[in-house]
Amino acid sequence: MPLPRGYISHSQIRLYNECPRKYFFAYVEEIRPPVNDKVFLGEMFHQAIEMHFRSRIDGAPLPDGEVTSAFVAAFDEAAATREINWQAPQRETRERGLAFLRYFLEHIAPGIRPLMTEKELSAELPGSGVALKGVIDLVEEDFCITDFKTATSRWSDSKASQSPQMLIYKYLFDRSFGPVCSSLKYEVLYARHAGNVRHQTLRLAPAAEAQENLLAMIDRVVRSILSGEFQPLETPYCRYCEFRARCLVKAPG
Ligand code: SF4
Description:
Layout: E1 8-9, H1 10-18, H2 20-28, E2 35-36, H3 37-57, H4 64-81, E3 84-85, H5 90-108, E4 114-124, E5 131-140, E6 145-151, H6 157-162, H7 165-177, E7 184-190, E8 198-204, H8 210-226, H9 244-249
Parallel strand pairs: 1-5, 2-3, 6-7
Antiparallel strand pairs: 4-5, 5-6, 7-8
Bound molecules: iron/sulfur cluster.
């Protein structure tokens, strides 16, 4: 079978590695379960910081109050039209998102020199010729590649270093513009409640063989999808899976 989207991306790779059958439900059958409230909050936060960075890149920075008002309006509009799985009350989730945004505008944004935001990049993978695509949250003037995360708790160093996301972005950036001397970092904002926002910067220094290993891993995932391998990968986390009911009754293929 062809790749469902005609290309591969970090989110597809992450989902396939998490559980091939989950990938099948999401990308082959295109089932769209209600979005989790934490994911929704993250989407709204990213939309707001993109607005902030784009205004600065365009030379007409928006006042912070305009960015926070736009966040509230976009949050309420999207919440009214989309199916969301609210695990915390909607109002509480919005306040937490607003607190993240205010923290970002006050403590993180002033130290950033944005060059590109939400930059979509694509490159053909060696061997298969399949297109690898990614959208980078932020590239700074010194070519530092940054991804922002919103979370309920602090990230561990291993969580940051084990994810292939930034390696994929670095690979795409170098294939598009380089190779360029650039650094990689996650900016993680975390809080369980609006009144207690914290922040960590996690810098990554990939090993020399990281790119080779990355390309081999992506190649394995692509070949498995093309071969129609969508076996279930049962773990204790299955009880949180949004496709659990289908998985119990229906085998793919
Ligand atoms: S319930 Fe478990 S095995 Fe089934 S799709 Fe979800 S994660 Fe995969």
